Amino acid sequence: MANEAEVIHAISVGMILAFGAAAALLLSGIEAPYGRYAATASKWWGWKVPGKPAWILQELPNLVFLGWALWNGDPAKIGSPPNAILLTAFAVHYVNRTCIFPLRIRGGKPTAAIPFLLATAFCSANGYVQARTLCSFQSFPEGHELTPRFVAGILLFCVGFAINYQADDILRNLRKPGETGYKIPRGGMFEYVSGANFFGEILEWSGFALASGSLPAVAFATATTFNIGPRARQHHLWYLTKFDDYPKDRVALIPFVW
Question: 170 pLDDT exceeds 80?
């Protein structure tokens, strides 16, 4: 178990370093070759993977590792209220991301092979460290689920999940059946930021990290921010270029700030 704890620690540190480097590249002007950017992506990013299968397959390892960790974990830790709440939050997000969200997509742009494989690798590593930590390693003091930090973290997670889910709905319903092209998203947090869905997901995992306090949870929140923060900026610049009437007071990711 001690050796496995060291592996989890190393993977968590590696996630922070790898996504920090990726954020630097994305902020330097390199475009992530997915969705609306896939059509113009270099052939070196690999063949195109259909959107819906890509979403399901790349997110699935989170649920696979969660099931494995629950089966092989410590019942006392799994049944502890803080662990159970955090495991439930993780499961709810990834049941939505793996089983519900992809099936609700209308059309869906393809994803280049290399980003798809990298996303699958990340979900495998992250699913392993989060689930294994909560099922076998992390213990909390009695009554920790009632502490202000834990309650605030779970509330932040729930708010982020609601924002993310609503933003996905707004994006999905932008076009009526049969319509093509892009439109300006409006409503919800889109009134303030171009990356409302990204903002919601960052809030989710920041709340998760606040409630957990573990290195793997902090690494997850950090990696999420490093990954989708630059993508929000990429979307924002694209909207400004695409639409002359794009709201000038709307920012990329953080309301009223950036």
Answer: yes
